[in-house]
Specification:
Order of helices and strands of chain B: HHEEHHHHHHHH
Strand order of the largest sheet of chain B: 1-2
Shape of chain A: globular
Distance between the termini of chain A: 40 Å
Distance between the termini of chain B: 10 Å
Structural class of chain A: alpha/beta
Number of helices of chain B: 10
Oligomer: heterodimer
Number of helices of chain A: 9
Chain lengths: 250, 267
Amino acid sequence: MNENVPGEPIIVVDNVFKTFPGGVCALSDFSIRVRRKEVLVVIGPSGSGKSTFLRCLNGLEEVEKGSITIDGIPLNDHKQNRLEIRKEVGMVFQSFNLFPHLTVLENLNLAQILVRKKSKGEATEFSMALLSKVGIPEKANIFPNHLSGGQQQRVAIARALAMMPKVMLFDEATSALDPEMTGEVLAVMKQLAREGMTMVVVTHEMGFAREVSDRIVFMEGGRIIEEGPVEQFFTNPREERTRLFLSQVL
Amino acid sequence: MSFIKAGRYSRRSPIVDVAAFLLLMAALTWITGTETSKLGYNWQWYRVPQYLFSYEDGKWLAGPLIDGLIVTFEITGASFILAFSFGLISALCRLSESYMARMIARAYLELIRNTPLLVQLFFIYFVMAPIFDLGRFASAVLSLSLFEGAYASEIFRAGIVSIHKGQWEAAQSLGLSTFDTYRRVILPQAIRRILPPLTSQAISLVKDSALVSTIAVYDLTMRGREIISETFLAFEIWFTIAAIYLVVTVSLSIVAGRMERRFGEIG
């Protein structure tokens, strides 16, 4: 499989069902393909299943039925497969989830050393490069609690990038931030998109969606209501439900 | 973590507080004093120091009480390490995905917590020890560590489940194995939180170790009983022994307090 051909699907999701205990249906016959270097933005009202979809992609949630394949590796009961997929898929959470007992640098180094089996020197070198990229190399030896929310989220992005993932998942990465800090995190995400990272982004930032995404998916009730290229989606949505949603958020 | 100060209520002056306390203590001492003199007890504190230290041929020698204290330390130390391991292992078993592991850990916990330590000690010493050829010291350490391990297990479990789910998710999304996640992410944070309850468990261990005197392990309490049976200095020796235990346990809490503060700065 040639990695550098854009357009070829890297994420293949077929007929996935997921029900939470208590009978809440999070994903219902959900299918989607994400191509290499594509930036896919997923929007929808809360409880529509968009976070669940994202969390299924790296095995944080188990699917009941259906199949997920990432970069040719099927995500199934095999522990080894799940581990391989997690190496290839980076995830950024709404609540950052940095490790509070480790410094910023140690946060970035941890998985490189334990999972990628790098030496401490190699890991540190790469980590420092990533911290420069997200604009906070001077915070390397500080504990995460001493950083602002925006800085913490940028560290979290750098930590995910440290694994050199082929796909990055963003689960409402800016929802816990002040508007002021949202900008600095979105800037990093935009830069990643420009560099050709395959991204699946769950967000409420319609500006970001409009500016960066290649394709938009609108979800409700665990299903895709509408999907399409950005311009068409915002200017001329086909579905009435999409129109209603857009009129409320725009 | 910070302590809440009762800001709204004006606090009593410490001088009044201390004076009231001293007055109460003086009254209690006086009552105890008159009652003991009614007993006709002949206090002989001057005979106690020889059981702590003796000076012979230009050298200081440890007396039987200090020898006993060393045995108490050995038992407590060995039991603490074992109890820590039992506690951690059974906590991990209770949180594991294996049904059998969960059941075994649960059975261990219920069995130990719902029978008296003294009975467990006798059971191990009189029943298990002859079968497995265990000595008195080993029996003592085994029963103490099994007992405290059950309580430590609940402390560990509480500490582990108190760590936010997001920490697990972050570690797993980075591809860390369950083992590495525990070792490098969850436990370092959990240990910090459980240090205070774990210390009080260690203090309980020091105190409970006195029970091993019942199977003739020559710990501090056993030495004391021995001295009393020879000298009838019951009051003086029991006071001394209580004081020694107190010094050990209070020192432990001070050390734990320091560690907690140091960890707290990072967390």
